[in-house]
Amino acid sequence: MKCIKKSLSFILSLALVFNMFMGINISVYGYDEFIGFGIAGHGWENDTFALATEPGWYGENWDMEVGMDQIVSLGFVEEFPGGRAVTAPAEYDKIYFTDMEDNLLEDDVVEFSNQERYWDDQDQEDKYRDFPEGVYYIKFKVDGMFKIKYDDESVENEILINVHLPFTALYNSEEASLENLVALPDQEFEYETGIIYYLIMNQEVFDNRTQNITVNFRDEFLMGDNQVDWTAMDYVALQIYVPDTMVGNLWDAITIDITKGEERWNDETQQNEWEEWQEGYRFNFLGNENGLVISGADWRNQDFGEYGWYGAPIATDPTENEDSFRSFGKEFGCEMINTINVTLGIKSVYGEDEVIDVLSEEDYGKLSIVDEAGFLLSEDEYSIEPATIECSRWDEELQEDVRETFTIPFVCSIRINKVGSFRLVYRDGDYKSMIRMDTELPAIAAYGKQLVSEKFCLGSENVLYS
């Protein structure tokens, strides 16, 4: 009776191809004389996964990193009069996993499937399809030594799997362990702000062909020098502080460039020559999408009664439709000096429902703008106020235009007079949330000198200046 649940895990072929080139530690010990049930990496055929057909690639030992998706070939290497050949297992359900004491593994230890998930362009949805025979998806959730077996009395040998901690990963402690592991390379990781993570290398699987390792950080980490020579530091655990002001998704938040080299035989020169190549890893950081969110306000004609119809900003209603709801996000771009009209809200999750409560005029006093380091901008560097419109009508009795200013409900006017990356912060008691606002020079502006710079910018096409 099988205990392993054949889970249909999420597999992205592009990510797996990236992993193949980016240095995931995979080692297989194939033998020219190997016969029996063995494991190897997958092959390629017509740009799709295929069974590895070279007998010399197969062996009875395999190394894997815990938590990493792998596509492998399982097959029987058999001896024939003309040489050895590989045959795929006839029955998928006869493959099973055990620990070293031959106890069956449950699905909370290993995921195993003969299907991959893919995106169907025509139907615009995810679908599943079978791998070619002999090709499988494996992911171990714990480290240790395990076995892969085939339920057939004629098969004598078993495959030994060594599952170890990743070559490099993020941990919440200086001690690398499965319990402290928080993020693997090339997997999306939802980070927390205001805490320290540790980038640690697994020295036990260190490749002695490695010449140099450099770690690169995005500017949002506020490290000053965004590049660390890890080799020069003898690969000590790197402390990585995530600032309170980090917001949104950071693709390639941390990248690791690895230079490897070794002597390789050159057929042309008939001698060994030194050859170097590049490998690497990357960590993608996903931000919390809840809390303060922002959407641009619409601009439409509105009826102001006897004042007539005027073009004015209209608040985006998140309950109007799915597009309106999804227009709210954690990042917003604008031009310095120019006033932007936006709708702000607080996004929350109640069970399976997402809700956005739109902020109104009485909430705007809880807003402020800080720089990337968290320092509050001065009063002359930004403004936050309710959006207004000035309308006029002819007064017969006074025989003159009468003007009146109207406040636009749920629309906030924001202006930042600097170029850079800032945070719009909402505070309500102990609750705090923020969004990211990046500003740039106006597309059209007047300058006090023949120099396009923030310092000499006097005003834009939408801003009066003297």
Briefly say what this structure is:
This protein has 466 residues and is mainly beta.
Overview of this protein structure:
This protein has 466 residues and is mainly β. It folds into 3 domains: 13-164, no CATH class; 168-286, no CATH class; 291-460, no CATH class. Helices cover 3% and strands 51% of the residues. It has 2 helices and 35 strands. It has helices spanning 13-21, 322-326; strands at 36-41, 43-45, 48-50, 61-65, 70-80, 83-87, 95-99, 110-113, 115-120, 125-130, 135-140, 144-150, 159-164, 168-171, 181-183, 188-190, 196-201, 210-217, 227-229, 238-241, 250-266, 271-286, 291-296, 298-303, 309-314, 331-335, 340-350, 353-358, 367-371, 382-395, 400-416, 420-428, 431-440, 445-447, 457-460. The strands form 10 sheets. Strands 1, 5, 6, 8 and 11 form a 5-stranded antiparallel beta sheet that branches. Strands 16-22-21-18-19 form a 5-stranded mixed beta sheet, with no helix packed on it. A hairpin with a 2-residue loop joins strand 32 (420-428) and strand 33 (431-440).
